[in-house]
Amino acid sequence: MKIHDQYRERVNSCLDSFLGSIPSSPNSDIELRDVMKYSVLAGGKRFRPILTYTVASLYDSEIEKADSCASAIELIHIYSLIHDDLPAMDNDDIRHNQLSNHKVFGEAQAILAGDGLQALAFSLISNDPLINADTKIKLLELMAKSSYAMAEGQSIDLSVVSKKVDLNILNKMHQKKTGALLNCSIKFGALLHNASENDLSILESFASHLGLAYQIQDDVLDVTTSDEVLGKRQNSDAVKNKPSYPSIIGLNESIKTFENLYQNAQEELSHLSVDCGPLSLLTTRLMNRSY
Amino acid sequence: MKIHDQYRERVNSCLDSFLGSIPSSPNSDIELRDVMKYSVLAGGKRFRPILTYTVASLYDSEIEKADSCASAIELIHIYSLIHDDLPAMDNDDIRHNQLSNHKVFGEAQAILAGDGLQALAFSLISNDPLINADTKIKLLELMAKSSYAMAEGQSIDLSVVSKKVDLNILNKMHQKKTGALLNCSIKFGALLHNASENDLSILESFASHLGLAYQIQDDVLDVTTSDEVLGKRQNSDAVKNKPSYPSIIGLNESIKTFENLYQNAQEELSHLSVDCGPLSLLTTRLMNRSY
Asked: What is the rounded distance in angstroms from the CA atom of residue B32 to the CA atom of residue B26?
């Protein structure tokens, strides 16, 4: 099994056992635990946990230490998907090839599932017995900041629907909406093992190139890939009148831009104090992804 | 100025300066910062911060150390009010004598404001330079657990609307929905100053009596107080077909029950290792509150 598949299976099993450990609420028709499970265990690429595990592996082979961070970052990501899919937000009824959370459990429970998942992400890291208190504080501080930036990015995103925006605004919006959490996933792996300030700043720059590349690529795939492969509706940006890279600079220019950004990201990695092989491999695979 | 008014002014000023420190997002029509400010600075009793300051004052006179906890717990409370007021939830259009957040900014921004406030609460404590890392972890662990319990309590609350429930279920629901956060406010004050396990367990029991008393009293006030004084619609439980203590055990029995619970709470306090005067005074004032 390839290493990224191993990481995916590992975080799936951590998430499954973590959610399984939440006590049931008797006497309720709907249990919040089950509402959360529906979305968390629906699959997905687990891109953020894979980033955390991969970066952590550059510094140390003790993979268990990265479990709570990998799981927490995925809980934050899933909470944001549940809320983004709500009728008041992006109004998407399909996610990961199944009905969106609110389509199954109703809007109220979907809002609460997102709220609950955000709280649980902080629980997971603050309760991890393998990480010392000083490191935990750095991780929690970064996750809180990134989670806030994500909400702010989504707020900006909603306020620019149907508007003419330039590339600069689009970049800034994505830097918050998706970039902040990717940056968090990447730096988690380094903070866990007390990486140097120099490595952290290289990874910060790597994350910013990778995050933007990933987003532009998402916009391109939204135009070029079928619903079934994406696991959500195709062409959703255009249908919703959302500004996207292809709509501003065209499809070919968008492809060229994200490929350049991935190459910049690759080049940064060679300056790390550790062997960057596994992270470089992951970056190449991302550049060539088809969904 | 009475001590509780001083605490209220103190937390108001901390919240104001904290939200003021969040950078603006240029190019947006609506700024998430302003959406949050609208609800956070709308006033309110600041009951939870007052509890934190009061308990902290039993152990130490250094009040600055409690600022981040007092502010964070209020941010969690306000986030929950914004989400609870949404049409998909309790559908309330008035809160603190002004329009609810979603009535002014729309549902999407209101959901994001709640999401952002939860993240900021964790930022506030994890960034506080006055608290050491070990203590911060205890505070963050408790806040994450309490915030999750609150979401779960609201989930149970929504699933029992229009249903016949017994006192036992109602107690359990309130223990999560409002009790968990009150317990957190109270224990924050003690954890900040390394209180003994014995004191923490006395405060836990005090919090559980106080929390239930406060909730039953809320149900009673919902029936007996005017909209203007409450700052929200009167008789809202009955209109929404929500089970309440007066609807199950009657008004007089409800009053007797909450008074007894406050008295139990008072008695617990005498066993603390420190002078419980200020907390005892606060409890008496709560018992006699009219809104």
From this structure: 11
- Selected residues 126-185 of chain A with any CB under 8 Å from a CB in chain B: 126-127, 133-134, 136-137, 140-141, 143-145, 147-148, 151-152, 154-156, 158-160, 165, 169, 172
> What would the pLDDT profile of B174-199 be if each residue is shown by its tens digit?
999 999 999 999 999 999 999 999 99
Nearest Cβ partner of A30 from B29, B109, B159?
Answer: B159
Contact residues on chain B for A137, CB-CB shorter than 8 A = 126, 133, 136-137
Q: ipTM score of the complex?
A: 0.94
Q: How far is B176 from chain A (nearest CA, A)?
A: 11
pLDDT tens digits, B19-46: 999 988 766 778 999 999 999 999 899 9
Rounded to the nearest 10 degrees, how much is the dihedral formed by the CA atoms of B37, B39, B44, B47?
-80
Q: How far is Cα A36 from Cα A112, in angstroms, rounded to an integer?
A: 9
- Asked if the B3-287 domain carries CATH number 1.10.600.10, the reply is yes
What sections of A128-269 are H helices per DSSP? 133-159, 167-174, 180-191, 197-224, 227-230, 236-239, 245-249, 251-269
Q: At what angle do helices A3-20 and A67-84 cross, to 10 degrees?
A: 80
Q: Is B89 on the interface with A (CB under 8 A)?
A: yes
Q: Which of A112, A133, A158 sits opposite B108 (nearest CB)?
A: A158
Contact call for B118 and A115, based on CB within 8 A: yes
How far, in Å, are A60, B85, B269 from residue B273 at the CA level? 46, 41, 9
